Amino acid sequence: MESKASMVNRLLVVKQKSDKSYTQIAEETGLTNVYVGQLLRRQAQLKPSTVPKLRASLLDLTNNLIQEMMNPPMRSYDPEIIREPAIYRFNEGVMHFGESIKEIINEEFGDGIMSAIDFYCSVDKIKGVDGKDRVVVTFDGKYLPHSEMRAEDMVSRIRLQ
């Protein structure tokens, strides 16, 4: 069985040969640019309805690669990735602003969290008011309220009685 790292390398070679950016592939497939990255890094599962669009965008995708991309992936990351400066700074931003973000979520929605499953993410480039390039990272996740854990609602306990 081929390792995840080997599969990812093969997929990234296909992207490189296409000479397309993640954003270009996203525009051609109707996906977000980050989701395209997740597909090519085997962090997301390719859905059957997206196969024709991805094949049209990345002409060197083989049947073998498509089939592998349609399997549920092993979602993981290398803990050493935090050493990469762009990722470190992004993490630093979340850590620095995290408490305020959490409090605003609680004020706006109540006690809960943002889903990372029902979730969209994109990276965009805009011009700031000073005319300089700026990075916009959008996290668009479904709100999930925390539930009160009442014993009477716990299905596994009801079955045991």
Helix content percent band: 40-55%
Tally the beta strands. 2
Number of helices: 7
Distance between the termini: 46 Å
Proportion of residues in extended strands: 15-25%
Order of helices and strands: HHHHHHEEH
The outline comes out as globular
Question: Biggest β-sheet: count, sense, barrel?
Answer: 2 strands, antiparallel
Short description:
The chain has 161 residues and is α+β, with helices and mostly antiparallel strands. Helix content is 48%, strand content 18%.
Give the SSE layout.
Blueprint: H1 4-18, H2 22-29, H3 33-40, H4 51-57, H5 63-70, H6 85-109, E1 112-127, E2 133-145, H7 155-160
Antiparallel strand pairs: 1-2
Helix pairs in contact: 2-3
Describe this structure in words.
The structure is a single chain. The protein is α+β, with helices and mostly antiparallel strands and 161 residues long. It is built from 7 helices and 2 strands. It has helices at 4-18, 22-29, 33-40, 51-57, 63-70, 85-109, 155-160, and strands at 112-127, 133-145. The chain has a two-stranded antiparallel sheet with strand order 1-2. Helix 2 crosses helix 3. The mean pLDDT is 93.
